[in-house]
Write a structure and sequence with these properties.
about 230 residues; alpha/beta; 2 domains; 6-stranded mixed sheet; two-stranded antiparallel sheet; 7 helices; 8 strands
Length: about 230
């Protein structure tokens, strides 16, 4: 492979196994060659903290979106990049200037304006959870979460696969999650739906994609092809 073709590599898994991906020009071993599988055209919602995240939670979502698209053909709903049909209507954004505005409303004691703004955002984000086939959550260490827990609860009560990647490994997962999520089998890099890393998550998704849906709760994976009707 020539140097100019080595532009990026998939972060989801071992580059030796997956090959090098470059805007559609990929090594034969690249996993995007195998995107036709169970996960193709499913929708994932990317859940995780925004308010207290250093980059508003944008970085990991953008990178993961690119790889979910390329490797598995998964479509993504991202609360930091909401898919509005009409940009002339109300704003549902939570990052950038809108995050600054929310902080200013709180600082100035304009609590009813803040509540009105956030009620709309909560509704939109939970609607994206509703529309997803499965949820992927990233929990960084030592970051306060509130909406993230609400979304996890909503997803689990809807019987959606709810997959959690914990920064530093599952030993840093909040204790409450261990009593709330399926946590078996306990393997080298995961306990049920709680994963030590994005690489561990990818290995699980790879098995699902190829039709080898592993436990836990394999019956919660529902594969439908809406475009076929």
């Amino acid at each position: 492979m020539t140097e100019d073709m080595i532009v990026k590599t998939h972060i989801l898994g071992d580059v030796v196994d997956m090959g090098t991906h470059n805007e559609g020009r990929c090594a034969e071993s690249c996993w995007c060659k195998n995107r036709e599988g169970k996960l193709n055209n499913l929708v994932a919602y990317l859940c995780g903290p925004i308010d207290d995240a250093d980059d508003d939670g944008v970085g990991w979502r953008r990178t993961l979106t690119e790889d979910l698209n390329a490797v598995f053909g998964v479509r993504v709903l991202d609360p930091t990049n909401k898919p509005f049909k009409d940009h002339d209507g109300p704003t549902y954004e939570e990052i950038g200037s809108e995050k600054i505005n929310s902080l200013a409303l709180k600082e100035e004691g304009r609590f009813e304006e803040l509540a009105e703004k956030m009620r709309t955002i909560v509704r939109v984000d939970l609607r994206m959870v509703d529309l997803s086939d499965f949820v992927i959550t990233y929990l960084p260490k030592d970051v306060v979460v509130c909406g993230t827990i609400h979304e996890i609860v909503t997803a689990t009560e809807s019987k959606k696969p709810t997959l959690i990647v914990v920064e530093g490994g599952r030993k840093y997962a909040p204790n409450w999650l261990w009593g709330m999520l399926p946590t078996t089998p306990h393997e080298e890099n995961r306990s049920g739906w709680i994963f030590d890393s994005f690489e561990a998550l990818t290995e699980y998704l790879r098995n699902v994609h190829m039709g080898e849906v592993p436990e836990p709760k394999s019956t919660r994976w529902v594969f439908m092809d809406i475009d076929s009707r």
